[in-house]
């Protein structure tokens, strides 16, 4: 007889009190271990490890960042629907995760994004119009990474975690005291690149923060298909701390990321931050989430909207008045109009530009391809079409 089956035959607890206690413990351990500083209703709560005391100006600034980012994102989606962009990956719902973590970075820190980090790009001072150039297909990336220490968007899932780790190892060799942050998603956490990045960053004690936005979906795959344990717990197996933060709480995201970056700067190595959030929109404009997820799920997350909860706090504490909200609305509309006009005015690139910047010193193969393409184009000239 096995120990387990003996245990199974033990009489059940008869005391109602004991049963209730056991239920409570089980319920507690099943709950995600979430760092939260602002409840979904907009109430400030304290956390013993992550205290933060932003000024009213800073709070209004975070709110403004989120509102403008959402407005820009909505304009980009509309532009794609009208044929002005090839594709758009919306950040709707993830504003707090991105603005909180983005505002935690220092100017000399270095950021490695995925393709959805429009809010982080905003915090780094990247011109939003440049983000759209890439999705319109008129440039090779859109911005110089070294101007704002913000790498180009990376579509190859998880690969930037390795780039960030290598960069962070370089920071240590340079003797600099800056830190690096790599963004990726719940789906990316299953990639080998991410596991390799965890291993290297841990053993080389690299000053890198892994910021995983768990938005519950990797296109149509739910997080349950990525992991059997909460994602932040993965870090423990690699030998560095992991923390789960309410990704719809901008204050908690700011505090947790700031602490992780400071830890990295002190030479204490990597941290995994799992921002527990939700992708309220489609994966990209090519996706239709109604095919694989229920409206009720989205509605439940809408009640935890990152912008609404900060607004509720600003209003209840009288930290912002009607003039502030009205002016911000005007500013949002101006931003939408500005990016729309700027995108439409973008000149089409020269057809041959695709062959530029492939290799720094050129390549015989690219030269051959360029010549072939030029000949093909020339074949369409008047009277010469074959
Ligand atoms: C190496 C690689 N495999 C597959 C894809 C196709 N792909 C694009 S986005 C995506 C899902 C990523 O999900 P997640 O990491 O959760 O990020 P999210 O899109 O939710 O922000 C996949 C599989 C890719 N771009 N790169
Ligand atoms: Mg995801």
UniProtKB/TrEMBL annotation:
SUPFAM superfamilies: Thiamin diphosphate-binding fold (THDP-binding). Residues 1-33 are annotated as: Disordered. Its cofactor is thiamine diphosphate. This is Pyruvate dehydrogenase (Acetyl-transferring) E1 component subunit alpha. One of its GO terms (biological process) is branched-chain amino acid catabolic process. The keyword Kinase does not apply. InterPro entries: Alpha-ketoacid_DH_E1_comp (IPR050771), DH_E1 (IPR001017), PdhA/BkdA (IPR017596), THDP-binding (IPR029061). Residues 64-345 form the Dehydrogenase E1 component domain. GO terms for molecular function: magnesium ion binding; oxidoreductase activity, acting on the aldehyde or oxo group of donors, disulfide as acceptor. It comes from the Bacteria. Coiled coil: none annotated. The keyword Disulfide bond does not apply. Keywords: Oxidoreductase, Pyruvate, Thiamine pyrophosphate. Residues 9-26 have a biased composition (Basic residues).
